[in-house]
Structures are given as C-alpha cells and as structure tokens.
Write a structure and sequence with these properties.
- The protein is mainly beta.
- Strands 1, 2, 3, 4 and 5 form a 5-stranded antiparallel beta sheet that branches. Strands 8, 9, 11, 12 and 13 form a 5-stranded antiparallel beta sheet that branches.
C-alpha cells in the first residue's frame, strides 16, 4: 500500500500570486511532511489517493490549508522625494514576501554627515501603520546626508532592516555675518574679522567689500575659500591696496551655493579708518628723512663751517603715489639747528 499526495497552490511571486502549480509526492505511511514549495502564510489545496497492486483509488475530499505566518522579508525599495533644506518625503514598498498580514513598519532615520558641531545629529526609530507606507520627515538640517532603513512587522514578529536609502538635503540661507571688526590695521591694509556662523547651511564663501566712505568711488573686494563644513567656514579676510588715513565702509557677504541654488546675506556695514602714512622730507644735500604725518615737524642737526642756503622739499606719500612738492629755501648759520615745520593740509 502506498499513498499519493497532490497539493495545488498559486505560484509564489513577489508582492502577489502567480498561476496555479501542482506537486505530487508518494509515501508509504499514513502521514507525511511536505517541504517542497511550502511557503509561509500560503494557501494549499491537498488531496490524497491510495494505491495497491490492483491499482489506485480516487482522490479524497479537498483539504484547504494555510501555513503559519513567519517574519516578513526585507524592505529594499525606499525612495525620497520633495527634499528641501529641512524636509523630505520618504516612501517604500512592502517586502517582496510579507509572510503574513503586516501590522506596522519601523523606520530608522540617521544623520550620517558627522559635522563637528552637529549637536542635533540624531538617530530615531518611528513606528508607522502598515496602511501608510510613507513618512514626511521634518526638522532636518540643511546640506546633510541622511540614511533611512525600514523593517516590517506581522504577527510572527519583526523582520530585518533591508538596504539603506541615503539622500542629501538642500542648502539653506546662511547666517548673517555678525560682529564685523578689524584687528590689524596699517596705512594700506585692513584685516577684517567676524563671528563664526552658528549654523552650517551648506558650502559658504565670504566676500569682504570695502567702499570709499566719502563718495563710494572705489571698491575693493576679497573672497575667502569655500567652507565645506562648519569647521571650514572663514572668519577673517585681509584687504590690501588701500589709501592711508582714510575712512572705508566695510561689509561682509555670506553666500551659500550648491547645484542650482544660491543664497546671500549681508552684514551691517562698519566704518574703519586706515593708519597714517609718513611724510618724506628731502634735503638737497641730498638727505632723506621719513616723518609720521601726525608729527608736523622735523629737527635736523647740521654741522657747518659757513652759512649755506638750504632748499627743503616736502611731499606726502600714500599707497597710490607721491603728492605735490612743497619747497622752501633758507639760510642756515654755522652751529645752528635747522627745524622745518609743515603747514597742515
């Protein structure tokens, strides 16, 4: 005596059911374990017939069987859309094989940028109902890389996290440069400083613009390197080629740009004065002296045997060149001290 077991089922396909399949197995005992093509939470139609040396009998009545649930498969189909500087829409498909009735999803979101000052850097696990395979993320940080992974759950338990999905948020408006001030000042150079930005909103270049405070007739500009992280954002810049003892209006512009987006914010303007330069006095000996512009006079000890006539030429020197010569001639007595006073300009 032997038995033929016939079982019929729909083909096991990803997120659905295929055409009908039929399997036959022969056993010699009144019980058997079926292994081939047996899937979790799947419907089967089972019939059994008996046979001996005289032949086979008819199949039994139909037995409808559904296998038990098992933990869901991995979720690998995750997408991100409507990504801005602080929001993103995440959606996904069910596992290829749910292996039961899904009751929820677990979504893990992680900031993987590792910015030095990302105190907001976080990992969160959110539980989402099985009928809502999407999630709107908010309060994200600009220009950061995020990783998302999702697992499904059914009555048998939680599945495993599948493949990670990564996306990058967009840039945002930079912080306004604040506390603009000078440190080193010479007659032709100003070193400008400003406070470091509190928030990193994307690659940022700072431009220092210096304008003649009297008539806005001359503009000097200088740019910093592009900062690709909070620790790379510039906080100082030097501008050279300026005129001595002159007032300039200084503005710092922060510009964050990436892809097709660009945002700019300007600091408040501050007035900074360059240092004084020196006057140059030329005696026709010839001898040259340099005097600070604020002194206003120069005493020159001379040793003479006879009275001589001395011609003095004075002209101002700035970063842009020499001024008009002022000349005076006078007699210097032997043993005297020659002192020249300039007229205030």
């Amino acid at each position: 005596m032997f038995y033929t077991i016939k079982y019929i089922f729909e083909r096991h396909v990803c997120r659905g059911k295929g055409d009908l399949q039929e399997k036959l197995t022969t056993v010699t005992t009144a019980s058997a374990k079926l292994h081939e093509s047996i899937f979790p939470y799947w419907d089967y139609i089972i019939m059994i017939s008996a046979a001996n040396t005289l032949g086979s009998g008819n199949y039994s009545n139909v037995l409808n069987v559904r296998t038990q649930a098992s933990i869901p498969g991995d979720i690998d189909d995750i997408t991100s859309s409507e990504v801005s500087s602080n929001k993103a829409e995440i959606s996904w498909l069910d596992p290829c094989f749910s292996n039961g009735i899904l009751d929820s999803f677990y979504v893990e979101i992680k900031n993987i940028s590792n910015q030095n000052n990302d105190v907001e850097g976080w990992t969160a696990t959110l539980k989402i109902p099985s009928n809502e395979p999407h999630l709107k993320l908010e309060q994200l940080l600009p220009f950061r890389n995020y990783s998302v992974r999702i697992k499904a759950a059914n009555s048998a338990g939680n599945g495993s996290y599948g493949r990670n999905h990564e996306f990058q948020t967009a840039i945002d408006v930079p912080d306004v440069p604040s506390d603009v001030h000078s440190s080193t000042i010479t007659s032709s150079l100003i070193e400008i400083h400003w406070s470091i930005a509190t928030h990193y909103t994307g690659p940022t270049i700072y431009t220092v613009i210096i304008i003649d405070a009297r008539d806005n007739s001359r503009i000097y500009t200088n740019k910093t390197n592009n900062g690709w992280g909070i620790d790379e954002l510039a906080t100082d810049c030097s501008v050279t080629g300026l005129d001595a003892f002159w007032n300039y209006s200084v503005t710092v512009i922060a510009e964050t740009a990436h892809a097709n987006l660009s945002y700019r914010r300007n600091s408040s303007s501050v007035i900074i004065q360059t240092a004084e330069d020196h006057y140059e006095i030329v005696l026709m000996f010839p001898t040259q002296f340099q005097v600070r512009a604020s002194d206003g006079f120069l005493t020159i000890p001379v040793s003479l045997a006879n009275t001589i006539n001395v011609t003095v030429q004075v002209r101002a020197a700035t970063a842009v060149g020499l001024g008009t010569i002022e000349e005076i001639s006078l007699a210097v007595e032997p043993g005297g001290i020659f002192q020249y006073y300039r007229t205030k300009m």
